[in-house]
Amino acid sequence: MNPFSLAGKHIVISGASSGIGRQCAISCAAMGAKLSLLGRNLERLNQTLNSLEGAGHRLYQIDLSIDQDVKTAVEKIVADNGRIHGLLNVAGVSTTLPLKSVSEKKMDEFFRANVFSAYSLAREVCRMGHFSQNGGSIVFFSSVMGSFGETGKSLYAMTKGALQSGARSLACELAPKQIRVNTISPGAIITPINEHLAHISDSVKRKELEDMHLLGLGKTEDVANACIYLLSDASRWVTGINLFVDGGYSVK
Ligand SMILES: NC(=O)c1ccc[n+]([C@@H]2O[C@H](COP(=O)([O-])OP(=O)(O)OC[C@H]3O[C@@H](n4cnc5c(N)ncnc54)[C@H](OP(=O)(O)O)[C@@H]3O)[C@@H](O)[C@H]2O)c1
After folding, report:
1. Which ligand 1 atom is the nearest neighbour of the CA of 44?
2. pTM of the predicted model, to two decimals?
């Protein structure tokens, strides 16, 4: 008996074509899950698929910011693979922008990519006949920026804070169906989302960023392990929480 096993579970992972989402796919497959992988870039989705242990995984090319496409994709996912036991909403975009540069177009773009797409995906996964009748787990990806402030992060922070507060109410709404809803808030992990940004590419700024995390910068595996916990029966009595996986960023 391994309480962290994902054997027999069908897990949907958005953002599986890159960074943290790709590592979550690799780690969940290693724990026995059957996966439906979502992303826009087909070549990189295929690279993820080819890295997975086990059989029966499928990929779905989708732009999650188009609501109707989300509905169609989830119907196909359930028809292809059966009911869903878990959803990892990893897909997201990041930015560092001062207030004066935040246009209406940017606000729309970031809320669509980080909030609306994850919320639509959760809604479709929870439609009648889509989620396992025994319940399961939905995980939203917030960030330490959803709880703490940094200059230039207001737009990104608003989207990530929205996920935390929405998830708490969804946890109440979905508990009667035994569907648990939690958020994960990672600290800084170098992936394609941030590797080009000044605080990573500039060595002085990168040292400052490292020093904000008591244990230094994290690895994608650190976050994937937390996802395994929240998707597995090991967390069967855990809902409505925001789990910091941040090397101590949030204790200071
Ligand atoms: N890295 C960090 O330091 C850090 C810290 C805190 C929180 N996070 C959060 O963790 C999550 C993953 O970040 P990451 O570092 O792994 O970033 P990443 O490597 O840039 O990956 C982002 C993923 O999101 C997908 N995506 C973005 N917009 C999409 C859309 N409209 N439709 C479908 N897929 C879309 C991308 O798919 P395609 O490439 O196929 O378009 C890609 O797979 C994000 O939500 C991010 O905010 C990251």
Report:
1. 40
2. 0.98
